[in-house]
Every structure is written in structure tokens, then in C-alpha cells.
TrEMBL record:
Keywords for this protein: Amino-acid transport, Cell inner membrane, Cell membrane, Membrane, Symport, Transmembrane, Transmembrane helix, Transport
Signal peptide start and end residues: none
Subcellular location: Cell inner membrane
UniProt protein name: Serine/threonine transporter
Membrane-topology annotation of the record: Multi-pass membrane protein
Length: 425
């Protein structure tokens, strides 16, 4: 076991790189992580969190940064513990063996691929609602609209991983400005909204139950685990032995940015809309931005809100496609088949297009998909697997004994038990 730990240490020492000052590439990754996380989950968070009441929302806000930062740092460290150039599927097989590697690769794919389905539904609903309510034109049949939108995003995917990350980082700038503008615009329209529930302190059992069921949605809303593998591989290539330190810096800044921006936006929305209006938005299966566009007569908001939603969902789709395709290719590799890279890329794109198109056409409940598919499955990969590896893998032994490990494990268990409860109820 010590020999294995030493061999891992030698791999780090073999590629010494001086940790330089913050670079443009670091900023690109920071914004890429932000862009992957801020999508459909975030745009539905005000609806789901607001329906829970004031005090659960405040507690969730306090948990947001440690919950997201420690979990994503753990997954990044897990990928960094592998050989040079190994993605998450390779590292799992390296540490846990071939059979466990195949199982975790399957779970990794199942954790990410449903998110693409969620984004496909959200994107189709957003564009269809924009055409009907703002442009006042009849949208094409849902099947055609969904096919065109998904095909357009897959055309961007064909440009390659680095192009996707750069495109997402560029899209983040106007998105941050627009989201901030919208949150500030809503301030004069604050009418108390959720504050009407602040005077009533829920019973401990009711509060814990609300938090318990809301955790999976929070996990999904700030999740960018699909791009963590590519992020860690690039950090290892760039910084070698210093990859852990620099990746932690990038993650902390990305999470601080997303938590501050998202929570300001969430509170601005729930202070503007009443619980009844939030329930109506959930029933209509629309994002909060699309609902706000239909709610206000202001033409600027009516046009800007759906466009912001479109950009948010589109860039998150691109980021999650990286992880989903990585998982699917890993599954193909585990079967022993080795198609040519271009052939495998085409097969992956065709599969993604077909399934995303079918689900977007059927239009299932987005919040229902988040609650039953997104958050809990992600929790197994994002929260529990890295903590298990810290206990069992010699290469990660140096991270043992930290209080954050207990916190991350607890959040992961809460998310998974919430799924079991929702399926049984």
C-alpha cells in the first residue's frame, strides 16, 4: 500500500510546475465552471425554494457555499489523484478495479445524462413561450422546435471541448450583467412575497422535512460536476504538483461568484412574487424568467428575461454535454469495443440528439425530473464517492480527518434519502 502511495507521489513530482500568478486560462475555467452550474436548476430554484417558506430558504442560503465548494473540491481531488491525463472514468478503474470502474462509470453517466434531458425540455419551453407571448407568433410543432434547438447546440459541440469552455466563459459575462440587472430591476416590485411566512417559525420536524426534500434541488442548482473531470485533467497538465492548490483557488472563486449572484437573484424573485404565483409557475412548467416575462407588462423585461433563460440553459447544456459524452464513451470502452474516435463522437452525438429530442417533445415535469433524477444521483458521485476514496485510497490519505469530509458525506446522504422518500411517498 505504501508502494502505491509512493508511486502516486512520484507521478506528481515527475511534472513539477511553478505556480504562477492568476492567468487568463484560470479566469476562463472559473467562468466555465460558473456557466455549467447556472442553468435550468438555478432558474427553477426560486420556485422550489420559495415554496418552502422563508426560514428554510435562509438556511439553504447559508449552506450553499460550503455545500458546493467542499463537494466539488473533493471530486476534483479524486480526479487529480490518478495518472497524468486520466479522466474520472479512468481514475475510478485505477483505484477501485475494472468491475467497480464499470459500475461507477455507469452511475456517472446516469448522473449527468438526465440533466441534458432537463435542459432539452427547459430550452424548448422557454423558446416556445417566448415566441407565443413576446413575439406573438405561433411556435412550430413542439417536435420540430425541439429538434432544431438541440441540433443547433450539438453543432457547437462539434467545435471541441476547448471551444465549448471558451464559448461558455464568453457567454457568462453578459449573463451575469443581465441577471444582476434583472435582480435589481425587481427591487421596486418587492412586495414582501415570502416575508409573509417569516413571522411563522415552522416546527422543527416540519423545518427538517422541508430542508430534507429541498437539498436535492439545491445540489442540482449549483452543480457543475460534469465538467470537473475535464477541469482537473487540464489543471494537472498545467500545474502538475500544484494542481490541487490552483484548482481549489479557481473553485472557491467560481463558487463565491455563483452563490452571491444566484442568492441575490433568488431572494429578489421570491420577494417579488407571492407563494401562489410561485406555485402557478411550477404548474406551468416554466422557468422563473419565463414566468416573470409573462407577469410584467414592461417590454424590456418581457424580451430580456426569456433571452437570459435561453443563454443560461444553452451554456449549461454545452457544459453538461462534456460530462455526459465522457461517461457514454467510457461505457463503450468498458464493453471492450474501440471504435475510431470520430466514429464514437458521431455515435454519441446521434444518441444524445435522439433521446433529448424525444424527451423534449414529451415535456415531462422539469422540477419532478430534478427531484427524482438530478440531485440524488449526482449526490452519489459528487458527495459520497470522493469521501469513500479519501478513506480507502492511499493517494488521497492526506485529506483524511477533515471536518469538511463529515459535512459533505452528511449532505450526500440527505440527498439520497430524500430520493428514497419521494419514490415511496
Amino acid at each position: 500500500m505504501n508502494d502505491q502511495a509512493n508511486s502516486v507521489d512520484e507521478r506528481y513530482v515527475a511534472t513539477p510546475v511553478i505556480l504562477t500568478n492568476w492567468s487568463r486560462q484560470d479566469t476562463t475555467w472559473m467562468l466555465g465552471l460558473f456557466g455549467t452550474a447556472i442553468g435550468a436548476g438555478t432558474l427553477f430554484l426560486p420556485i422550489n425554494a420559495g415554496l418552502g417558506g422563508f426560514w428554510p430558504l435562509v438556511i439553504l442560503a447559508l449552506l450553499a457555499f460550503p455545500m458546493t465548494f467542499f463537494a466539488h473540491r473533493g471530486l476534483t481531488r479524486f480526479v487529480l489523484s490518478g495518472r497524468e491525463g486520466s479522466d474520472i472514468t479512468d481514475v475510478v478503474e485505477e483505484h477501485f478495479g475494472v468491475k467497480a470502474g464499470a459500475l461507477i462509470t455507469l452511475l456517472y453517466f446516469l448522473a449527468i445524462f438526465p440533466i441534458l434531458l432537463i435542459y432539452s425540455v427547459a430550452l424548448t419551453n422557454t423558446v416556445g413561450s417566448f415566441m407565443e407571448h413576446q413575439l406573438h407568433i405561433m411556435p412550430p410543432p413542439r417536435a420540430i422546435l425541439a429538434f432544431v434547438l438541440i441540433l443547433g447546440l450539438l453543432a457547437v459541440v462539434r467545435c471541441g471541448e476547448q471551444a465549448i469552455v471558451k464559448a461558455m466563459s464568453v457567454m457568462v459575462y453578459p449573463f451575469i450583467v443581465a441577471l444582476l440587472f434583472l435582480a435589481v430591476y425587481l427591487i421596486p416590485h418587492w412586495n414582501g412575497g415570502i416575508l409573509s411566512t417569516a413571522s411563522v417559525v415552522p416546527a422543527p420536524s416540519a423545518l427538517l422535512s422541508t430542508l430534507w426534500l429541498a437539498i436535492p434541488v439545491m445540489v442540482f442548482s449549483f452543480n457543475h460536476s460534469p465538467i470537473i473531470s475535464a477541469f482537473a485533467v487540464d489543471q494537472k497538465r498545467q500545474y502538475g504538483a500544484n494542481a490541487d492548490e490552483r484548482s481549489s483557488q479557481i473553485l472557491s472563486r467560481a463558487h463565491l461568484l455563483m452563490v452571491v449572484m444566484v442568492l441575490f437573484f433568488v431572494f429578489s424573485c421570491v420577494l417579488t412574487l407571492s407563494p401562489a404565483q410561485l406555485a402557478e409557475a411550477k404548474a406551468q412548467n416554466l422557468s422563473i424568467l419565463s414566468y416573470l416575462a409573462n407577469h410584467f407588462d414592461n417590454p424590456t423585461i418581457a424580451f430580456a428575461a426569456p433571452l437570459i433563460a435561453f443563454v443560461a440553459i444553452a451554456k449549461s447544456f454545452l457544459g453538461h454535454y462534456i460530462g455526459a459524452s465522457e461517461g457514454l464513451k467510457g461505457l463503450v470502452a468498458k464493453t471492450g469495443r474501440r471504435p475510431a474516435p470520430k466514429t464514437l463522437d458521431r455515435m454519441t452525438a446521434a444518441f444524445m440528439l435522439l433521446v433529448c429530442w424525444i424527451v423534449a417533445t414529451l415535456n415531462p415535469s422539469i422540477l419532478g425530473m430534478i427531484e427524482t433524477l438530478g440531485g440524488p444521483i449526482i449526490a452519489s458521485i459528487l458527495f459520497l464517492m470522493p469521501m469513500y476514496a479519501i478513506r480507502k485510497v492511499p493517494a488521497m490519505a492526506k485529506y483524511r480527518g477533515q471536518a469538511s469530509n463529515v459535512f459533505v458525506t452528511a449532505v450526500g446522504l440527505v440527498a439520497i434519502t430524500a430520493l428514497i422518500y419521494s419514490l415511496m411517498s
